[in-house]
């Protein structure tokens, strides 16, 4: 008999021991944590979810966030000292960057002035509203310089209407990164639908929280999946655990 009380599974129960590969934990550097104290609150939420650490990914975005490798690494060093002084020695905080593929990105790629997540894998994002005409050439040049792009939250780009359009980026050599909050209605129903479709067809390569504040991490605790969806999520957890 059909039951209206179908069991739901909280994704928070499956995150133990992971590193978050996409977040805005470093304080006072972009639109993420606005103080070291907020960053500490985020770490408390991460630990309650079972995470062992993060690779913070501040925005590098022309005309908005004029960060660069030196600025990010200096902020990381400053925050790591703050963590040590605060007694937070059991949580790993490292740093990379989230690169908007705008005009300045070209020069960063040519100079190889990039902070990869791991190895030579670089987290990139695009405009949410329209695909820029130079995106394909930038991805090609990134690969020519020996880097591999990880496309952040492909489910959130409104002009990628379906799975086929998203998978065109995999054909161009991109890894695909899921935002965990996309598995809820946080970004709206269309994003939610695309995220579940990509997840349940095994197309994501890595996941991240994209957390900007403690509220985002608290919201993750409320996300549930069905029994049918759960195995695909568990498979992505393992991909993320082994990502290198």
Set down the secondary structure blueprint.
Blueprint: E1 9-10, E2 19-20, H1 36-49, E3 53-56, E4 59-60, H2 69-86, E5 92-95, E6 98-100, H3 103-111, E7 121-125, H4 135-144, E8 148-152, H5 163-171, E9 175-179, H6 189-199, E10 206-208, H7 214-220, E11 224-225, H8 230-241
Count of strand segments: 11
On the 0 to 100 scale, the average pLDDT is 94
Give the full name of the CATH homologous superfamily. Answer: Metal-dependent hydrolases
The helicity comes to 25-40%
Low-confidence spans: pLDDT under 50, at least 5 residues? none
Distance between the termini: 45 Å
| Subunit arrangement of the protein | single chain
- Please trace the helix and strand order, writing H or E for each element: EEHEEHEEHEHEHEHEHEH
Which architecture per CATH? Alpha-Beta Barrel
Q: What class do helices, strands and sheet pairing give?
A: alpha/beta
At the first level of CATH, the class is Alpha Beta
Task: Give keywords.
244 residues, alpha/beta, TIM Barrel, 6-stranded parallel β-sheet, 3-stranded parallel β-sheet, 8 helices, 11 strands, 15% strand
Summarize the structure in words.
With about 240 residues, the chain is α/β, with parallel strands linked by helices. The protein has a single domain (about 10-240), classed as Alpha-Beta Barrel (TIM Barrel), CATH 3.20.20.140. The chain has helices at about 35-50, 70-85, 105-110, 135-145, 165-170, 190-200, 215-220, 230-240; strands spanning about 10, 20, 55, 60, 90-95, 100, 120-125, 150, 175-180, 205-210, 225. The protein has a six-stranded parallel beta sheet. Strands 2-3-5 form a three-stranded parallel beta sheet. A two-stranded antiparallel sheet has the order 1-11. The mean pLDDT is about 95.
